[in-house]
Amino acid sequence: MGNLIIDFNIKVIKTKNSYSLSHNIIQLHNNDIAYCIYKNSIAIIDSFTLEIKYSLQELNSAVTCIVEMDNSTIISGSEDSLIIIWKIKEKQYIPYFYITGHKESVSNIRVISNNRFISSSDNTIKIWKGIEPYVLIKTIKIECDYVYYYNDNFYDYLLTASKANSKLIIWSMNSYQQLTTF
Predict the structure, then answer these.
(1) How many CB atoms lie within 10 A of CB 36?
(2) 126-177, pLDDT tens digit by residue?
(3) Are 67 and 31 spatial neighbours (Cβ–Cβ below 8 Å)?
(4) Distance (Å, rounded) from C-alpha 38 to C-alpha 22?
(5) I need a surface site. Which of 12, 67, 118, 180 has the fewest CB within 10 A?
(6) What is the dihedral of CA 13, 14, 18, 21, to 10 degrees?
(7) In this structure, are residues 42 and 63 in contact, taking their beta carbons and an 8 Å threshold?
């Protein structure tokens, strides 16, 4: 199958239930699609049949972001400030590890190198490391609406953007220092 284009104005076809699509859609390593749906769950869709394979429903509040860490791990953030690490067990994702640390809704999660990932919320970016337990290694206080990770094979960068102050800031993920602001 080539590139899959999803029209955000329609509902997913070939499903028994009517789900609203959110902006949190990712393609998994096996070409399946994971997306957050309004009923506090994450649906995994088979990219060939467009049928829902299964739904991850161990959530107390709405999912705000989702990312694949590796071939067997998904990380989700939610409105109740909880981060959940999901692992594949018997061909299904199960909640594996719960992380708390934010005070408000988790707005972004990005995977970075060396078993690290970042999460943002409540005017902070938190950098987590490990496999389990996951350990908070750094908190950066910054107002940001969007976080992007970039690696150029030599350096790791974090880009943050804020609607409120119209700033783009580039950070070094090696030193955790701010490099420049636009």
Answers:
(1) 27
(2) 989 877 788 898 898 888 878 888 887 778 888 888 878 788 888 888 888 8
(3) no
(4) 8
(5) 180
(6) -40
(7) yes
Structure tokens, 168: 């783009």
Distance CA 63, CA 27 (A): 17
Other C-beta atoms lying within 10 Å of the C-beta of residue 100: 9
pTM of the predicted model, to two decimals? 0.75
Q: Encoding tokens for residue 53?
A: 């394979």
Q: 176, 149, 151, 152: which is closest to 160 by C-alpha?
A: 149
Q: Is the peptide bond before 133 cis (omega within 30 degrees of 0)?
A: yes
Give the number of other CB atoms < 10 A from CB of residue 57. 11
Question: What is the widest separation between alpha-carbon atoms in the chain?
Answer: 50
